[in-house]
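Following the same procedure, sequence and fold were stored together, as reproduced here:

>
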Amino acid sequence: MSEKVCIITGGTSGIGLATADAMREAGYTVYELSRREKGAEGFFHIPADVTDEAAVQRAVEQIMQREDHIDVLINNAGFGISGAIEFTGPRDARRQLDVNFFGMVNMNRAVLPIMREAGKGRVVNLSSVAGVIAIPFQAYYSASKAAINAYTMALANEIKPFGVSVCAVMPGDIRTGFTSAREKLHAGDDVYGGRIGRSVAGMERDEQRGMAPENAGRYICSLATRKHVKPLYAIGIEYKFFCLLQKLLPVRLLSWLVGMLYAK
């Protein structure tokens, strides 16, 4: 039985792996859930698809057979798709929401009762600055992250009386394999005058010039382990500024600026 226990989803690479490393360094026993059969060395790996509610429940039950508590849950599992809304099929759109949003929902439904009964716990949901500033040709990714923000804001007030707290972390551009793993839907690029390809290429250049995942992981760990949290956090001064602009600028001006950056 461990003194401090953390569960993280999607912890075999990128931000997830960096966060798992940081949590282990902070003294936590880390259980990592992902669809991969083999996890990273140094963690307890449980193969599970977060979109499968029964598999998630079994994984949490397996952890509770070893531990009698869960201190931290970090919902990191997710992926990105890009493409024009008009040419993105319902199956792809639903899968994006299924993994990024409902995968988090499944994990929280399995873990929150344990934390509530213990009278303590911290949930960290991985969102994105794209959830605050919607990115053209990545609409469903932005929608999935905006849903996480709204969900987190509501959940924070619901579980507060039970000693359980939740926050959503909004990274911007991070140098990880997320970029190469993005599912790029090119349909309609000719109709849109090449704007889909240009937008996604620009976004991917920015990502590969972005923050190191280790920095993001340490920041997420600091939120997971501090005494009190607010519902939403952006990672990095630049992205905190962007989120501030979103609040201050007229919607028409903000939309024009985003269009100049990502829809030309």
Remarks:
- The chain is about 50% helix and 15% strand.
